Amino acid sequence: MALTHPVALPLPADPLTLPAHPDPLTDRLHASGLLHELAHGLDGPFHYLLPERFDANLAAFRAALADSGVDGRVYYAKKANKASVFVERCAEAGAGVDVASLGELRDALGHGVRGEDLVVTGPAKSEQLLRVAVRQGSLIAVDAPDELDRLLGLDTGRPARILLRRLPPNQPRSRFGLDDAQLDRALRTCADAGGRVRMEGFSFHLSGYDTRPRADLAGELIELCLGARSLGLPADRISIGGGFAVDYVDAAAWDTFLTEQRPGHYHGDKTFAAGDFYPYHSPVAGADALRAVLAARPGGTGPALAERLRQAGVTLLLEPGRALLDRAGSSVFRVQGVKDRAGYGIVTVDGTSLSLSEQWFNSEYLPEPQLLPAPASGSAPGAGTETAGPYPACVGGASCLDSDLLTWRKVPFPARPRVGDLLVYPNSAGYQMDSNESPFHELPLPPKVVVDRPGDGAGHRWRLDR
């Protein structure tokens, strides 16, 4: 006999809700019943991907460059998601890919991206990675003096295409980049290396999402290019990396959350510092952030960055990851059980927090999951009677670790979840799905499902990502 439950648990005095921005396309997908069919067929959690969204984001970045009259190139930062479909879209669109390991380089090549369309980043690259990158004609961001020495020591029969990575003056404790003295020596080394190296310009790795520091440092790199040319080096491009924010939630809801969140809103009175959260609301995000960078005047004086790039004949390279994946996928978990505690519930799903990687940073993925009730005919025996909400609950994983929570916050669900219902974590393609994944407990890694829209009224088509 099915158990019944109270109509609702008493809510905390001021429950916090933080839904993602409305998305009509995913709403139609969720209402189609496809996710329940996939959960049944795959028998576990999964991620769905929307490649058309990736295409649109890439087009928006390219439009920002074109509208500013800037010669530029977009490289997708592959580390943001391991799915093959996004690399395939880059190959089809003639976009570049940013890789940081031999595995990523091989995967990009294997899915159709040309070697010369790759930029190789990351610290202390292995000799094997450097050798393959040079042979493929990839652009290499040199991060340390010994890396340049190792490149010069390779016998590949072709010049190494390189950028020299600059240590940001306003982030001197960064572990990435060459300081002033190292940069000066590296430039002279490149000038003396003859045909073994083609020094094409400079790059930087800058933490944070503010547009002004990126414009300021980009202006410095343009001046470095002009100086390098006096040494006979090509120096005709700069890379400003990634760091283009994604806007997940409404401004008012985000401000309320930051102001009011406290330990009582979380299971176990867990404490999160507001400054440790990703900035889930950003007034300037994605391609608009690039437009802001290009419109800014480096150092606050003189022409805008776009004009300086044009005057100097410098090509702008950028390496967005999360921003190209905005709204391009979500993560789906099936409810395995629900237990009531004093004032809230604990929902346990069929996956773990390792598939929602913000926990890796001792933080929380804050855009809250959407509850999709199971079809009436598919309810699990003994699942209980759906009761009126709101029902505040945290979300735990299926592991034996007490700290395995996908969501510590007591989310006010519209009804008490039932076994067989789905929780959809929205907009999780950027860094969340697989950065920290592990087959803990021998649970299979959640597969990725590519959802294509045929455009002929036939509904959604899907396939597993290769």
List keywords for this structure.
466 residues; alpha/beta; Lyase, Ornithine Decarboxylase, Chain A, domain 1; TIM Barrel; 2 domains; 9-stranded mixed beta sheet; 8-stranded parallel barrel; 12 helices; 28% helix
Can you characterise this structure?
- The protein is of the alpha/beta class and 466 residues long.
- The protein folds into 2 domains: 24-50 and 328-464, Beta Barrel (Lyase, Ornithine Decarboxylase, Chain A, domain 1); 51-247 and 282-325, Alanine racemase (TIM Barrel, Alpha-Beta Barrel), CATH 3.20.20.10.
- The chain is 28% helix and 21% strand.
- Strands 1, 10, 11, 12, 13, 14, 15, 16 and 17 form a 9-stranded mixed beta sheet that branches. Strands 2-3-4-5-6-7-8-9 form an 8-stranded parallel β-barrel, surrounded by 7 helices.
- The protein is elongated, with a radius of gyration of 24 Å.
- Mean pLDDT is 92; it is low at 1-7 and 378-385.
Mean pLDDT: 92
The chain-level structural class is: alpha/beta
Provide the low-confidence segments as ranges.
1-7, 378-385
CATH topology of the largest domain: TIM Barrel
Give the N-to-C terminal Cα separation: 44 Å
CATH class of the largest domain equals Alpha Beta
Strand content: 15-25%
Radius of gyration: 24 Å
User: Could you state the CATH homologous superfamily of the largest domain?
Assistant: Alanine racemase
Largest sheet: 9 strands, mixed
Task: Indicate how many domains the architecture comprises.
Answer: 2
Layout: helices, strands, pairs:
Elements (H helix, E strand, L loop, with lengths): L23 H8 L2 H9 L3 E4 L1 H17 L4 E6 L6 H10 L2 E4 L2 H9 L7 E3 L6 H10 L2 E4 L2 H8 L7 E7 L13 H13 L4 E8 L6 H19 L7 E3 L11 H10 L25 H10 L9 H8 L2 E4 L10 E13 L2 E6 L20 E3 L15 E9 L8 E11 L6 E4 L22 E5 L8 E4 L2
Parallel strand pairs: 1-16, 2-3, 2-9, 3-4, 4-5, 5-6, 6-7, 7-8, 8-9, 11-13
Antiparallel strand pairs: 1-10, 10-11, 10-15, 12-15, 13-14, 16-17
